[in-house]
Amino acid sequence: MRGDDVSIALAQEIPLGNLCEITAGPSGTLLDNLRDNPDGVPVISPPDLTDHYQVDTRRLRRVPRADAKRLSRFALRDGDLLIVRQGTLGRLALIRAEHATWFYSSSCLRIRPRRELVLPAYLASYLSYPPVRRSLLSQALPGTVPSLNSAMLNELPVTVLPMEQQRVVVDTLADVDAQIQVQRAIADRLEALRPAIFGEMIQGSRST
Fold this sequence. Notes:
Layout: E1 12-15, H1 16-19, E2 20-24, E3 41-44, E4 61-63, E5 81-84, E6 92-94, E7 103-104, E8 108-113, H2 120-128, H3 130-138, H4 150-155, E9 157-160, H5 163-206
Parallel strand pairs: 3-7
Antiparallel strand pairs: 1-9, 2-8, 3-4, 5-6, 5-8
């Protein structure tokens, strides 16, 4: 597919590299000043990626703002994806507006979708789909720490639906996620109430 082919009428299998720009994280030397203090620009690392495509911001490390210019090519944008390439392979996050201008570590790859071809949320769901994830991880380079690289991701086939169908998929999965959150909140509340219910029941038994 050429760069000027910007419409998809039917489902197609397209290499990820034709849909996105894939960029490895900065080398370790560019992150020499990474620190734990609250000042500076956050840097997202593999432990900061959750199981739900999100970024856990509680333990972020930062680089001084003076280093931001030399790291500018690694700045994140709303709609980027980060995928772990060393360590917990395949874990990924969908970058939101609040993460824009942050950076990412050398253990991650940034995937920047061409939005005229693929929706970021659709692509995040596709890359997390268990058969796709297994296929990707089966290609990991062996070693003490298995790893993925940009070349592997560039060649990964992606089933791309027409844009309207992608929106339907994204909206449907968003509804499912919302229901999961509701049910999880109910389960958490019931779990918290369980000891109190038990306590009331045994106290009631003693007074009868």
